[in-house]
Amino acid sequence: MNTFFASPPTTRRRLLAGVAGVVSLSLLAACSGSGGTDSAAPAKSTTVSQADIDKAMATPTELTFWTWVPDIAQEVALFEKKYPAIKVKVVNAGQGAPHYTKLRTALTANTGTPDVAQMEFQYIPTFTLTDSLVDLAPYGAAALKDKFVDWTWGQVSGSKGQVWAIPQDTGPMGMLYRQDIFDKYGIAPPKTWDEFAEASRKLHKADPSVYMTNLAANEAAAYHGLLWQAGAKPFATTSKSDVTIDVADEASKKVATYWGGLAKEGVISTDPDFTDGWYAGLNKGKYATWITAAWGPVFLSGLAKSTSGKWRAAPLPQWDASAPASGNWGGSTSAVIKGTKNPIAAAQFAQFLNSDPESAKLFATKQFFFPATKELLADPSYVGLEPEFFGGQKVNQVFADINSTVSPTFAWPPFLDKVTADWIETVGKSLADKTDTAASLDQLQSRLTTYAKAQGFTVQTP
Amino acid sequence: MTATTAMQAPLGDAESVRQRKRGTRRISPGPMFVAPFLVLFLLLFLAPLGYAAYISLFQQRLIGGTTFVGLDNYLTAVKDPLVIHGVLRVARFFVIQVPIMLLLSLLFALALDSGLLRFAKFVRLGIFVPYAVPSVVASLMWGYLYGPDYGPFAQLARGLDLPTPPFLSEGWMLGSLANIVSWEFVGYNMILLFAALRAIPHDLYEAAAVDGAGAWRIAWSIKIPTLRPALMLTLVFSVIGSFQLFNEPQLLNRIAPNVIDSAYTPNYYAYTLAFTGQQVNYAAAVSFLLGLVIVIVSYAVLLTANRRSAL
Q: Alpha helices, DSSP H only, in chain B?
């Protein structure tokens, strides 16, 4: 009756035979192609001699560098000028998640991996777990320690003195606020989270269309910056197969109760960020503050042009005003990827790109990255800038000062993607749905514990 | 030709030998024509399928490497509440969305075919254009239209002092998704049905007109019954499309993360397992299970339709 799906029986039989053939073929292919991650045991730290480095840097070499930083050719050119034998091929493999997915695919396939890749701080443990990063300590990276802001070095260091990556830019967290809205409703910039909560209630009562801030229910990274500030220690790894998961510790509970409470009261909003609605909200004065990172000011001035001159920057409100603290949200590093045929040149490139004063300054002035080097953060020509968008305030100085209050011991889990996804579906969801956020921490704890155990980790819980 | 046939009886043996010889010397053209398709089909379709089936029998862990687990992944998947809920959700989506979409497609196709519409070509193109918009773009666009603060519907509602329609809320989400998918595919199905309508011989209409049938009667008694195979085709395409729903929820997840979780549809769940949880093996098993569900549902749909037509 229906002519579209009639098929003669012989075709079906032949098709099945074909399928069987293909399956057995791919069985063979897969058998021969598996294995690979096991072989890469951490290499012993034997320092590479200067002679070897000089030789490698004079040998014609091509390096592949995966990054999504726009216009990075300028910084790369500085390196190629210093080492004419080395050519660097820049590849943009996507921004954020797609970049890491492709990198992981290439690592699994054991082919097509770059020599150097951009790596955000929080992803470093995820890739050291699979032995995918080259320890740069033997290549002279340890000597760079004092050039970089302390907490950034804490983020890239391994427990046995390894240097897994070189910091490129950072995002110490602060608060950008609308001076005009604060003035209109008689609100002083809050110094503590208690004052912030008071101000939230007062502001929303005075004008129900305005919220003190937007705590995006999808932005796990920003929330983890706030946990970092509060001194939470949700994750720790003592050895490779041991992971401590404690996402419901006292500090985490404090943060969850605080933000969950404000969300439930309806005096802050929880709109997803970096969406059309959120951009419009920033432009139209829906949010009186943006709790963000040091890259926020430049980003905002490009985004909310209509609000130019109305914004100011301040440190985050504090839990304990006598012991100021902050966390980090965003920023990146350069890491050398296991499997590179030119580890010396790759390591030198990662180090030069981020520690050479000229290159570092270009990042700060051309890409508007917030610097990771101490030298630049003390440079009056950088921290002394007075952007009009912030009414001539020395915004860079505000964030440079925050840097010294960022704890160097916050640690990320070895399976970040999973933590991010589960955070959105537990804590983030409770914020958006105005349910019990403190209780959602237990859900997160149990989800992550189950996952880690299934993945073969020995899980330590409180 | 007739001469040869006449000669064939006495010379039968010699002729067949010659033909056989010719057959061994020359490669017959049939397989050659099929070869390009077959090679691509094997490489790009069956080989990945076989590979996925293979890896679904293993378990790779971050610590401890890969072990053979047989059908364990499948046994876990059939009991996994996230899989079950996802399948039930797309089933509900199918039951609500597909009849509406196909009915609209059918109405449009009949209207265009009736020749009574003005600007028929323009209308046809207008209905078809959404299909040419990539579903990613469509989802982003609808995401903006649905926006609770600054979306046009919300603004209109506020302007009229009405409550803003909560398009992205838990209760409305499936309907909002159904709306996007219908918008995308009404035109596509309409073209399929319209093409089938054009293929109906005109003498049927003439005969019906002679018997005194009007436009409605012709549509009901001639057009719709003749459209049966085409309708079945669109229906089965829709089964597959509904159960594999992925792009739309994945993109709306960005603006409604608290409503659409990563296991909202089975396909999205498989994707999350593979790319955020690094559980490729389990993802492969879930995908195969979903494939099995689609085969069963498609078959059930065809079977019920065929039984009805037999009555």
A: 2-25, 29-40, 47-55, 72-79, 81-114, 120-132, 135-146, 152-159, 173-198, 202-210, 215-218, 224-226, 228-243, 247-252, 266-275, 280-310
Report the b/e string of A407-417 with b at 16+ CB within 10 A. Answer: beebbbbbbbb
Which chain B residues have a beta carbon less than 8 Å from that of A99?
Answer: none
Identify which of B247, B171, B249 has the alpha carbon closest to the alpha carbon of residue A433.
Answer: B171
Q: Which contiguous run of DSSP H or E holds residue A328?
A: strand A328-336
pLDDT digits (tens, 9 = 90+) for A81-118: 999 999 999 999 999 888 999 999 999 889 999 999 99
Q: What is the CATH number of domain A173-329+399-460?
A: 3.40.190.10
Q: How far apart are CA B158 and CA B174, in angstroms?
A: 24
pLDDT tens column, A236-290: 988 888 999 999 999 999 999 999 999 999 999 999 999 989 999 999 999 999 9
Residue A44 has pLDDT above 70, yes or no: no
Q: Fold identical between A46-170+330-383 and A173-329+399-460?
A: yes
Q: Mean per-residue pLDDT for A342-357?
A: 96
A56-59 CB contacts, 8 Å cutoff, 24+ apart? A56/A342, A56/A344, A56/A345, A56/A348, A57/A83, A57/A85, A57/A86, A57/A344, A57/A345, A57/A348, A58/A83, A58/A85, A59/A85, A59/A345
Architecture of domain B73-310: Orthogonal Bundle (1.10)
**Chain B partners of A275 at a C-beta cutoff of 8 Å?**
143, 254-255
d(CA B205, CA B214): 10
> pLDDT tens digits, residue range B111-152?
998 887 888 889 889 999 999 999 889 988 999 999 988 899
Q: Provide the β-strand partners of residue A291.
A: A175
List the single residue in B with minimal CA-CA distance to A454: B61
Could you give the angle at the alpha carbon of A233 between the alpha carbons of A231 and A238, nearest 5°?
A: 145
C-beta atoms of B63 and A34 within 8 A: no
- Domain ranges for chain A: 46-170+330-383, 173-329+399-460
- How far is A40 from A110, CA to CA, in rounded Å? 12
User: Residue A274 — φ and ψ, nearest 5°?
Assistant: 55, 40
CA B67/CA A38 separation, integer angstroms: 14
pLDDT at site A41: 40
Residue B99: per-residue pLDDT? 95
Shortest CA gap B60–chain A (Å): 8
Selecting from A5, A272, A276 the residue whose C-beta is nearest the C-beta of B257 gives: A272
DSSP state of A238: S
Question: Mean pLDDT of all residues in chain A?
Answer: 89
Q: For residue B1, name the pLDDT band (cuts at 50, 70, 90).
A: very low
Contact, A151 vs A406, CB < 8 A?
A: yes
How far A213 CA lies from chain B's nearest CA (Å)? Answer: 16
**Distance (Å, whole) CA A178 – CA A282:** 10
Residue type, B25: R
Sketch the domain layout of chain B as residue ranges: 2-55, 73-310
Range B198-221 average pLDDT: 90
User: Could you tell me which chain B residue has the CA closest to the CA of A269?
Assistant: B149
Please tell me the CATH code under which domain A46-170+330-383 is placed: 3.40.190.10
